[in-house]
Design a protein that fits this description.
The protein starts with a helix and ends with a strand. It has a 7-stranded mixed sheet with strand order 3-2-1-4-8-6-9, with helices on both faces. The chain has a 3-stranded mixed sheet with strand order 5-10-7. A two-stranded antiparallel ribbon has the order 11-12. It is of the alpha/beta class. Helix 1 packs parallel to helix 15 and helix 14 runs antiparallel to helix 17. The chain has 2 domains: 115 residues, no CATH class; 218 residues, Alpha-Beta Complex (Spore Coat Polysaccharide Biosynthesis Protein SpsA, Chain A).
């Protein structure tokens, strides 16, 4: 038992150290001192996004960076997504909508949509955005500067998350918690090891010339978490990739309720641990039951130290993610229970091959 307790305490200290490193190194998109004017292809895969797509398109039209072509791929939507896009595109010739081709066997829907978009794009840079986002002035120019100065093949950003309900606040912060508590983000660029990879499909900017030589989405056509897999591929081929926090240049409301967020995250969390049931389970058990065990078996001083480490970790992650500190502290226990539920759901759906997203079976593509 004593070895288990010391393992738990060491695990807590390591997680705190990673979070502290991220907090000090501040891995955020910064303001560019230079203005660029190269053509950027903004590529948007969209399936049943009638509630979100117009807001994104309007924010792109108002964006201070005007040298863009925007191509939307309507992925066989069954709502009014296509009609909304067609009406908007008629008002600005920089915007085009394509799509509705049949999904080939062996492809994930989003990966196929991105591949089709890339084949139509003409820009110096390809910027893939999800349809439920809003861009702010400076985003594209600052991203180009990062690409240029870092000689990057891929830049990925984690958007600031908009959360309006208690249910969302119990689920969505887990994304930044897992990211900033487990991985020193600066190492994604510094390390050549492909296993040190993180990325968000909400924002993926590619050097177009390199992309067209590799067609990354085709290489990972059957992967659920295509963003991380692409970052791994980029590093495997000897190119540079970087992952940063969006620093309020990009916002997203991923889900509108607890059940929707739970369903959405359950399709990703297992894949984020390389599909390892054991790895995900051990991590969640250490996260959730480590502190109670420390309270039972250790002295008051060590219990207090463990509490302080957890408390400060939560504050640092909230600050980096631009989230409400008080809400994350109050909902800490509820967020852990949600993480436990997500783990159970993800493993169950994987074993039973019942994972579905936007009307399509994920396991069967």
């Amino acid at each position: 038992m004593i070895y288990l307790l010391y393992t738990i305490f060491l695990f807590l200290i390591l997680r705190f150290t990673v979070t502290l490193f991220n907090f000090i190194s501040n891995p955020k998109l910064t303001t560019s001192p230079k203005n660029y004017n190269c053509l950027v292809s903004v590529l948007i895969p969209a399936r049943n996004e009638q509630q979100h797509i117009l807001t994104l398109l309007q924010s792109l039209k108002k964006q201070d960076y005007q040298s863009i072509e925007v191509i939307i791929y309507d992925d066989a939507s069954t709502d009014y997504t296509l009609a909304i896009c067609q009406n908007f595109c008629a008002t600005d010739d920089r915007f085009t909508v394509i799509g509705n081709s049949q999904l080939p066997q062996g492809w994930m829907g989003k990966n196929h949509a991105c591949y089709q978009l890339a084949k139509k794009a003409k820009g110096t840079y390809f910027l893939f955005l999800d349809a439920d986002e809003v861009v702010s002035n400076g985003l594209i120019n600052n991203a180009i500067h990062r690409m240029e100065t870092g000689k990057l093949a891929l830049l990925s950003l984690f958007a600031n998350q908009i959360m309006l309900t208690i249910g969302e606040k119990m689920v969505v912060p887990l994304m930044h918690f897992l990211l900033l508590n487990l991985l020193p983000l600066r190492l994604v660029k510094v390390s050549k090891n492909p296993s040190i990879a993180a990325a968000s499909g909400q924002f993926m900017m590619f050097d177009a010339a390199i992309y067209k030589s590799q067609f990354w989405h085709k290489q990972v056509k059957n992967k659920v978490v295509e963003d991380i897999e692409i970052m791994k591929k980029v590093k495997q081929f000897g190119y540079k990739g970087e992952t940063l926090l969006a620093n309020n240049y990009l916002h997203c409301r991923m889900y509108a309720s607890y059940s929707e967020a739970l369903h959405g995250f359950s399709k990703n969390i297992l894949a984020g641990f390389g599909g390892s049931y054991l790895g995900l389970t051990v991590f969640v058990l250490l996260i959730g039951f480590g502190f109670p065990l420390i309270c039972v078996f250790f002295s008051f001083k060590l219990v207090f130290l463990a509490f302080v480490l957890i408390f400060i970790t939560k504050i640092m992650i909230s600050l980096m993610a631009g989230q409400n500190i008080f809400a994350n502290l109050i909902l800490h226990f509820a967020q852990f229970l949600t993480l436990l539920l997500l783990t159970i759901l993800s493993i169950y759906k994987s074993i039973t091959q019942t994972q579905v997203w936007k009307g399509r079976s994920i396991n069967g593509y």
